[in-house]
Design a protein that fits this description.
By secondary structure, the protein is of the alpha+beta class. It contains 11 helices and 9 strands. The two termini are 31 Å apart. The structure holds 5,6-Dihydro-benzo[H]cinnolin-3-ylamine.
Length: 292
């Protein structure tokens, strides 16, 4: 990937901090030439192979390659430019300023089904764009899903720090992700695949509808045990008034066998996502249904 030779501050003026992760800080920036408002993600470079601080260069390169490949979809963050300083690599990204989906859910405790279904449909459209390019996100969670603008149900998938290309027939194994969102194959150190993202969609859906986390235990090991035994339930407290469609949607994703787990295309066809607008003429045998 080509890195800009000129200094970052020659082209951009730094504004407010938008968010931060373990080794990254994101600022709102203004392009000096055009006045455009963008986001700049400063990723701390790892200085020594034995260090635990910072991100190894090849991981940053992988995030850039993935962003370059998946850019251009309305539910996926767009990469505009890359700069380097002695300590950081700077990704200039499309500005999303509606805050994290995580905060939006917290502000409401949980969402009604229509709002949750609209958010999940957008997440599925973004994921379909990734999976069609053999990209697997591997860190889907409400913190990594941003609202384009406050109060609008339009989302962008933002953090591709753990994402990678996974091609059929080339097994990839790795112990990564956030414990309460990882699928059984991650816990069991078995091959990762697009199905790994679909399990996480189930966890995000469960959280949007209830505010609770389906597999979270008191310890990391308890969480992992709940995941590998698919030990979850729809607590009456939050799911008493939830539709069968919503519960069926979630239960098709919490499937241990990756070959039996719903794919992104099957999810987009599910009645909970297609909603009441299914007309009889959509159900002609063999019809190609245009989902866009
Ligand atoms: N880990 C993160 C975290 C964030 C972002 N990217 N990666 C981001 C990207 C574009 C606009 C705004 C943000 C803030 C949060």
């Amino acid at each position: 990937f080509k890195i800009n030779e000129t200094p970052f501050s020659d082209s951009y003026e730094i504004g407010d901090e938008l968010g931060s992760g373990q080794f990254a800080v994101v600022y709102k920036v203004t392009c000096r030439k055009t006045g455009a408002k963008l986001a700049a993600k400063f990723i701390k470079k790892r200085r020594y192979a034995t260090s635990r601080r910072g991100v190894p260069r090849n991981h940053i390169e992988r995030e850039i390659e993935v962003l370059r490949d998946v850019g251009g979809h309305e539910n996926v963050i767009q990469l505009h430019d890359v700069f380097e300083t002695p300590n950081d690599i700077i990704l200039v990204l499309e500005l999303v300023s509606g805050g994290e989906l995580f905060d939006h859910v917290c502000a409401h405790e949980y969402l009604n089904e229509a709002e949750a279904s609209a958010f999940i449909k957008q997440i599925l459209l973004g994921i379909r764009h990734l999976h069609n390019r053999f990209v697997v996100h591997l860190d889907l969670k409400p913190e990594n899903i941003m609202l384009l603008r406050r109060g609008e149900p339009r989302i962008k998938l933002i953090d591709f720090g753990l994402s990678r290309h996974i091609y059929p027939g080339i097994p990839v194994k790795d112990m990564i992700g956030t414990p309460e969102f990882v699928a059984p194959e991650v816990v069991n150190y078995e091959a990762l695949s697009p199905a790994t993202d679909m399990w996480a969609v189930g966890v995000v859906t469960y959280i949007l509808l209830s505010g609770g986390s389906p597999f979270l235990g008191r310890t990391r090991d308890e969480t992992f045990c709940n995941i590998t035994s698919v030990n979850y339930h729809f607590s009456q407290t939050y799911f008493a008034n939830t539709s069968q469609f919503a519960k069926d949607f979630i239960s098709r994703l919490f499937v241990k066998d990756v070959s039996a787990r719903a794919t992104v295309d099957e999810c987009l066809q599910h009645p909970w996502i297609r909603g009441p607008d299914i007309g009889i003429n959509d159900i002609r045998v063999g019809a190609t249904i245009n989902l866009s």
